[in-house]
Amino acid sequence: MRPILVLMALVAFVVFSVLFIDGLLKEKRTERRPDLPKVTERHKLPLREYKEKEQVVHEDYTATVVPSPVERLARPRPTGPGSLAIIIDDMGKGMQEARSIIDIGVPVTFAIIPGLPKVRQVAQEAQRRGVETIIHLPMEPKGYPERRLEENGLILAQSNEEIIARVNGYLREIPQAVGANNHMGSAFTESRDKMAVVLGELKERGLFFVDSKTSAISVGESMARELGVRTASRAVFLDNIQDVGYISKQIRQAAAIARKRGNAIAICHPHPATIQALAAELPKLREEGITFVPASSLVR
Question: What is the model's pTM?
Answer without folding.
Answer: 0.75
